[in-house]
Amino acid sequence: MSDPRLRNLKVKTGVVRRLYKEKISYEKELEKERGKLTGMRQKGEDEYRVKKQEEVVQECLMMIPNCKIRLSNAWTDLKTSIDAEPGFSNTDEYREATKVLNEVEPNLR
Question: Which InterPro entries does the annotation name (predicted)?
Fold first, then answer.
């Protein structure tokens, strides 16, 4: 892998993979915190604690769109790089990048 274009492709693939995992993590955290908030309301917990939990949920909600934008931009960048280097289609880096693109694409919308 002495070609810098292959290294660049590998790095971009890693970025897309990391951002995708980050997005999934934020979505799971949001569901967990929403569940916690619902439980607190059902139990009739102190209004201050409920209010603080609502703030936690709002913070989670703010992180998801930001992560989606970064993921979309990284995905587009990787797709552009792959399209620009069709001569590398027989390399492991190219196949891995294509696999990651196909895995992430349905979740961009």
Answer: TBCA, TBCA_sf
Q: Which residues contact 7 (CB under 8 A, 6 or more apart)?
A: 1
| Helix, strand, coil percentages in the chain from 3-state DSSP, rounded to 5 | 90, 0, 10
- Does residue 4 register a pLDDT over 90? no
- Do residues 71 and 108 lie in contact, with contact meaning Cβ atoms separated by under 8 Å? yes
Question: Would the pTM count as exceeding 0.70?
Answer: yes
Q: Give the DSSP letter of residue 91.
A: S
CA distance 37 to 53: 6
Residue range 34-88, pLDDT digits in tens:
999 999 999 999 999 999 999 999 999 999 999 999 999 999 999 999 998 888 8
**Would you say 108 and 69 are in contact if contact means Cβ atoms under 8 Å apart?**
no
**Residue 106 is which amino acid?**
P
Q: Would you tell me which CATH number, out of the four given (1.10.10.10, 1.20.58.90, 3.30.420.40, 3.40.50.620), belongs to the domain 28-103?
A: 1.20.58.90
